[in-house]
Amino acid sequence: EEPPVVKLSKKERKKLAKQKAKELAEAVDKNQGREPKTEEEKASEKSKKDEKKKKSLPITRERRMAGGLKVRDIIIGDGLPVKSGRKVSILYEGAFTNGDVFDRNQNKGNPLTFRPGTGAVIRGLEKGIEGMKVGGERIITIPPALGYGKKGQGHTIPSNSTLVFTVQLLDVGGR
């Protein structure tokens, strides 16, 4: 009889992967007759990796836009820019300012597709992706007035909630 399958959270999977990578590295070192790395060597390698990471993620300063909207680019894309009326496909994660996620679509096979300027999504999201280029990733902080306002959204989003969307732009199509 097989043991039950346990679902791990993303955080737990990352932690387990790090642990397994460490065990593997130690086993390889031991197998090749090398001494395991000292904490100092590990720290040096980590700082080099962190430097590389910083260079690959050009996080920009937060920009304040009309209506209290805030945007910060994590990755600046190099494809077509978003224009009103052109169909866009995005992956996103919507969270409250405390980090609790209320909605997400990370499925590349079925991204959220809509035309900015048509009211298909909340105004803050439409305005927040303006000028974004394909391949880009952006954090958009949406004040209640450009989100769901005083009404909220059912039991999911309370009234007057500030929302934080992390958006990845996959495609900008034609009209």
From TrEMBL:
Q: Which UniProt keywords apply?
A: Isomerase, Rotamase
State the InterPro entries in the record.
Answer: PPIase_dom_sf, PPIase_FKBP_dom
One Pfam match: FKBP_C
- Asked if the keyword Isomerase belongs to this entry, the reply reads yes
Q: Which domain of life is it from?
A: Eukaryota
Please report the organism this UniProt entry assigns to the protein: Ditylum brightwellii
Q: Which PANTHER family match?
A: 39 KDA FK506-BINDING NUCLEAR PROTEIN, FKBP-TYPE PEPTIDYL-PROLYL CIS-TRANS ISOMERASE FKPA
Reaction equations catalysed: [protein]-peptidylproline (omega=180) = [protein]-peptidylproline (omega=0)
Where composition is biased (Basic and acidic residues), the residues are 20-50
- Name it: peptidylprolyl isomerase
Gene3D superfamilies, A to Z: 3.10.50.40
GO MF terms held by the record = peptidyl-prolyl cis-trans isomerase activity
Q: What EC number(s) does the entry state?
A: 5.2.1.8
**Domain PPIase FKBP-type as annotated: residue spans:** 85-173
Please list where the region (Disordered) is annotated: 1-63
